[in-house]
Design brief:
- Two copies of one chain form a homodimer.
- Chain A contains twelve helices and twelve strands.
- By secondary structure, the first copy, chain A, is an alpha/beta fold.
- Chain A has three domains: 44 residues, 434 Repressor (Amino-terminal Domain); 128 residues, Response regulator (Rossmann fold, 3-Layer(aba) Sandwich); 132 residues, 3-Layer(aba) Sandwich (Rossmann fold).
- In chain A, strand 8, helix 11 and strand 9 form a beta-alpha-beta unit.
- In chain A, helix 1 packs across helix 2 and helix 1 crosses helix 3.
- At the A-B interface, helix 4, helix 5, strand 2, helix 6 and helix 7 of A face helix 4, helix 5, strand 2, helix 6 and helix 7 of B.
- The structure holds a DNA duplex (30 and 30 nucleotides).
DNA sequence: CTAATTTATGAAAACATTTGCAAAACTATT
DNA sequence: AATAGTTTTGCAAATGTTTTCATAAATTAG
């Protein structure tokens, strides 16, 4: 490997080294079958000697795809998004795409700014998290005519194809389970809902389902808790210390439920005989925690994978490839943290 | 907002709409102070009307920075890496950079391929995870003269600046703690170490520390367990069911320790009175789990942040900015899962 | 051994920008 | 009102590729 003394090698450097024209080198990469195998060999060696690396930026300005996909999520700090992104990334990497990743931290203004930046980089497609976005975001997407999918949530009439689970269904499943066990004294713990359509949808449907069964949740049992195990543990402890405590606690996600489980243990309560705790999500660890958590599975890996596939298809074949939404059904998972009231 | 009927607007479209030359539009973006405020206004409106979005690909071929940084990690599925990446991303986004993210799943061949792809995209810098990489990776980095930092681990003489914690120190801290409590019957649970220098370093130092205190770990107490709560729970259960069980279990990371804690509970053991369980990492949730986990904190957020800062500095100011390594010291965190043997 | 095909290569234009240089348009000064 | 000095703008070349079209080389047929 002869070190290249001069600056970065470009296609012309390689052409000279191989004693061919730049066009031929270009063909070597893009249509190798058009070359005589002797020239191919020659170029091969020249590429190696010069340490040449193709410049995608230069290709991109010819209208050739950039080979990048913009991924916009709220935050990687929630393991569930990390899981979705990992699956998405695997799916698109298998087809030669690389992801540009950015997080907006539930700030819809930042989401718009990030999307613009993605477009400056000429991404071939974009994934957004959730269904709810600033109108400006959708308009930008419309005007650029760029493939886009909304990942994580599903809704039939979403503005762009949505691939994910139906939060309403998830919320209903868990609420019905708790009701069917016979609970009437029910508390709820949900994350703040600003800029977070997922949490909002779940909370609404849970309350509606309870109400239509004649159960109303008392105000002081309606907890808004930050997405963190420590906060939920604290709030649960406070809730469980009251003389008058609920027989069941429905949590908006498994992180909150995990904290609530710890909080119950710390308060000296036994789950599920003293109190039922359920979550939504079936995160990693939810099945191993003691007691194992009753929850509703949102198939994160599957969602990420399907979203990746769908977007790549839409990119590669823009006419027929513009697929529709896909519902990845949530599934009730009964484990040990729920039981009939004492 | 007049919709742009024709294809994508380029700088020429804008120039026509504003009745100036393309150069002036270019200056509008790159050196606005050179323009008369009247022309600036005119261009401003033209940009808006045409819906023009700058093309970074076209800029990049002029040697202008691409504004992207390649981030190469083993996997996002380990929450700790997700946390590091999030912090890194925040740090560089604040300076206008966007990250290209890819994971290699502990496959060093893939790492090389991904790095090449990053270079094709003309990233302005690269972060790799851990100190250990294929020689080809380093050579490629050398030949391209691109800023690079090794994130997560620290070692004094690393080939590129390393920013992270010293795993040896972390391993030593936890081993010394367990020894100082008086344990002699000690088991270890570590993840598979192929392609994973972090885990390897930790295991070696733990064993060495124990040995130099006269404690040898029996073969059947030397567990190799996949990084997952369910696997570690199973393995821990098996370990704890034996008639002859250890008085302490040192786990290579907090995920394994969490599973071990669950496994102990499931086996009817009380931690820490029956058995001590400790981890390494201080992951999210480690302080809230019941009993709270004794561990060594690896400051993930700080590491990600510092790495981001360092890389951006090296990119922006290549001469003086090529900073050195940075050690983010691990810290022993004593909690409730450890106690002297019965 | 030509002529007719087919295959392989090169020249030049195109892509969307930036930038050095020079010209034009202002200002200030006399 | 003319000149000198500044500020603002445009022209054209450059960036690293791809691609169309044309030409040269190789192959096949007659």
């Amino acid at each position: 490997m002869t070190a290249n003394k001069s600056k970065k090698a470009d296609i012309i450097t390689v052409a000279k080294a191989a004693r061919v024209s730049p066009s031929t080198v270009s063909r070597y990469f893009n249509h190798p079958e058009l070359l005589k195998s002797a020239t191919r060999k020659r170029i091969d060696s020249a590429v190696r000697r010069t340490g040449y690396i193709r410049n995608r930026a230069a290709q991109t300005i010819h209208g050739i795809r950039s080979g990048t996909i913009g991924v916009l999520i709220p935050t990687l700090d929630h393991a569930i998004f990390a899981e979705v992104v990992q699956a998405f990334s695997d799916a698109v990497a298998a087809q030669g795409f690389t992801i540009l990743l950015a997080s907006h931290g539930y700030d819809l203004q930042r989401e718009y700014a990030i999307l613009r930046k993605f477009l400056e980089h000429r991404v071939d497609g974009v994934v957004l998290t959730g269904l709810d976005h600033d109108e400006a975001v959708f308009q930008l997407l419309d005007s650029q005519e760029i493939p886009c999918v909304l990942m994580w949530n599903y809704a039939a009439g979403s503005r762009y194809p949505s691939i994910g689970a139906d939060n309403e269904q998830a919320g209903r499943l868990i609420a019905e389970h708790v009701l069917s066990l016979g609970h009437r004294q029910i508390a709820c713990m949900f994350p703040p809902t600003n800029g977070n359509d997922r949490a909002l949808a779940r909370r609404e449907i849970v309350l509606t389902t309870l109400r239509s069964a004649g159960v109303t949740v008392r105000d002081e049992w309606m907890l808004t808790t930050r997405y963190s195990i420590s906060d939920s543990k604290e709030d649960a402890k406070r809730l469980f210390c009251q003389t008058n405590r609920p027989s069941a606690l429905i949590c908006g996600n498994d992180i909150l439920a995990t904290g609530a489980l710890y909080g119950a243990t710390a308060s000296g309560l036994i789950v599920p005989s003293d109190v039922t705790v359920v979550g939504i999500g079936d995160f990693k660890g939810s099945s191993e925690i003691e007691p194992a958590l009753t929850t509703v599975r949102l198939p994160a890996r599957r969602i990420g994978h399907e979203a990746g596939q769908a977007l790549v298809t839409a990119i590669i074949d823009p006419v027929s490839g513009a697929g529709g939404s896909l519902h990845c059904a949530p599934e009730f998972i009964g484990r040990q943290s729920s039981a009939p009231p004492a």
